[in-house]
């Protein structure tokens, strides 16, 4: 359901609701959890919410980028533009690599 969420991350409310509908329906298939609210069903079977899974996946990708876990020969190099607008935020001078 969420394969490659670091590449394709649903941000539209309709897409998120469709994924959540599948999870809600799947958790209702467990008979002894059927009457519980959705978040309680997730707690009972120890599954995180979609929002948490997306956030965790994003943080894993950031960690990989910062610590150079990607092979530079197999990925595209992205350079920061120091002359770009940062809306007052400080710009870090580092290189990022993204898998294509």
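Q: What amino acid sequence fits the structure above?
A:
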């Amino acid at each position: 359901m969420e394969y490659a969420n670091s590449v394709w991350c649903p941000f539209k409310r309709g897409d998120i609701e469709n994924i959540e509908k599948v999870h809600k329906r799947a958790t209702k298939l467990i008979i002894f959890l059927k009457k519980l609210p959705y978040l309680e069903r997730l707690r009972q079977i120890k599954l995180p919410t979609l929002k948490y899974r997306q956030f965790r996946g994003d943080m894993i990708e950031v960690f990989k980028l910062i610590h150079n876990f990607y092979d530079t020969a197999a990925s595209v190099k992205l350079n920061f533009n120091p002359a770009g607008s940062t809306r007052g935020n400080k710009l870090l001078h580092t290189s990022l690599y993204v898998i294509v």
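Q: And what stands out in the fold?
A: The first helix runs from residue 13 to 28.
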